[in-house]
Write a structure and sequence with these properties.
alpha+beta, Jelly Rolls, 2 domains, nine-stranded antiparallel sheet, five-stranded antiparallel sheet, 11 helices, 28 strands, globular, Mannose-6-phosphate isomerase, RmlC_Cupin_sf, RmlC-like_jellyroll
Length: about 425
């Protein structure tokens, strides 16, 4: 059997710095699958009903899923080498560090510190937050900011509740949130009464810092985010289902599990009660005008951009190549790529967006573009009869000075 180094080298050379990745499916025991990830219906509970239905697919992930009774590799992406499942992307990056993710990220983090996923549920999920780095590191974990984009190709139906509650109504007090926690076992603790919901629109998105409450609605969501799976649920019931207290405190020091003041103080109050919450977090796609692309062939749009507390932690773009067209893209760093429509080639690899996937099947819709290949330039060619659409996300420090800022979509609208 070939060594890890030989397997990875073989894949890198065959793909000219681009490697195929196998689908990474993740279940959630407390949620109900939305059935839009193209996974066969008979495979939604392939890991057992005790593990929950599969409602997530993770992309270019080196982050394990923090699920109860999960195997240690749940959430990790695997390379496809010579048509079979090979080593994990985490092990490949550990072996070929800077070549794969760039010297800047490798020297600072020693790993690929981000991942993305499709998140697909039948209904809304509980109002929750993700801890900050300062809070999470008390347990040896990492904080988690995240972002959302709602790809039109997967949102052919909105399912039960295509609205997301975010933050808290301006004027809400900490005492009111504390009272909700006190009522945890009385049924619905009423925390959504303190929030406001936004209707979700395919083709738009949001940027969500840590410590901000949000109850994601039922659109399929593409979520570039920091490489962590910490969270705390602040809603006691959702769609008539009980939310265990343990899901509120799973990433809280044990001596704080019933300290209601500590749990309330985990929330970033200024962000949560911001009266201009939408202005400061809502995203719409913005074409990258710095690229030399023929608009009759392709357009590359920023779909996730902006900073988290002043830091460029992750970002994402949507490339559309029209039938008969092609585009050579030179990115400043590595990216995880998923094909959401059509077929074509990415570098020397043929790719397509499948319509039906069996659990365990190796598809041709996901790749990882290494830093070396990205900076040299990768050509995307549409070989089909419909638009060839890919989503790709980047690690920290890759937006550059020309990237848009949150709210810049309004400038484009004003220009007509």
């Amino acid at each position: 059997m070939a060594t890890l180094s030989a397997q990875v080298r073989s894949a890198l050379d065959a793909g000219e710095g681009i490697v195929r990745l196998a689908p990474t499916w993740v279940p959630r025991s407390f949620l109900m699958p939305g059935r839009r990830l193209k996974l066969a219906a008979q495979d939604l509970y392939a890991l057992g009903t005790h593990r929950g239905g599969i409602d997530e697919r993770w992309f270019a992930s080196t982050t394990p899923a923090a699920n109860e009774n999960a195997p240690p590799d749940e959430g990790l992406s695997y390379l496809i080498v010579n048509g079979v499942k090979g080593p994990t992307l985490r092990d490949a990056i550990a072996e070929f560090g800077a070549e794969m993710i760039g010297e800047a990220i490798w020297s600072k983090y020693g790993k690929w510190p981000v991942y993305s996923k499709f998140f697909d549920n039948l209904g809304p999920i509980p109002h929750h937050m993700h801890q900050s780095q300062e809070q999470a590191q008390k347990l040896g974990r990492e904080g988690k900011p995240e972002s959302y984009y709602f790809p039109p190709q997967l949102n052919w139906t909105g399912n039960n509740f295509p609205h997301t509650f975010m933050g808290l109504e301006p004027g809400t007090t900490k005492a009111e949130v504390r009272a909700c926690l006190e009522r945890w076992n009385d049924g619905d603790n009423g925390i959504l009464d303190l929030s406001r919901a936004y209707r979700l629109k395919p083709g738009t998105g949001w940027l969500i810092p840590p410590c901000v409450l949000h109850a994601p609605g039922s659109l399929v969501t593409y979520e570039p985010q920091w490489g962590s799976d910490v969270f705390g649920m602040y809603q006691s019931m959702v769609e008539g289902r009980r939310v265990p207290w343990e899901l509120l405190v799973k990433d809280v020091p044990e001596d704080k599990h019933h300290d209601l003041d500590y749990l309330v103080d985990q929330l970033d109050w200024d962000h949560n009660v911001d009266p201009y919450f939408k202005d400061h977090h809502y995203l719409e796609p913005i074409p990258d005008s710095t690229l030399d692309l023929d608009p009759s062939q392709a357009v590359d749009r920023w779909i996730v951009y902006g900073t988290i507390n002043g830091e460029d932690l992750f970002s994402a773009k949507e490339l559309t190549v029209l039938p008969g067209g092609q585009a050579t893209i030179r990115d400043p760093g590595a990216s995880g790529v998923i094909v959401v429509q059509g077929r074509g080639t990415i570098g020397p690899l043929d790719v397509d967006s499948p319509v039906y996937i069996r659990f365990g099947e190796l598809t041709k819709d996901e790749v990882f573009i290494t830093d070396k290949a990205a900076q040299a330039g990768v050509t995307f060619v549409n070989t089909g009869t419909e638009p060839f659409v890919t989503l790709r996300y980047f690690g920290p420090g890759r937006q550059g000075s020309s990237a848009p800022k949150i709210g810049d979509h309004r400038k484009l609208a004003a220009q007509g």
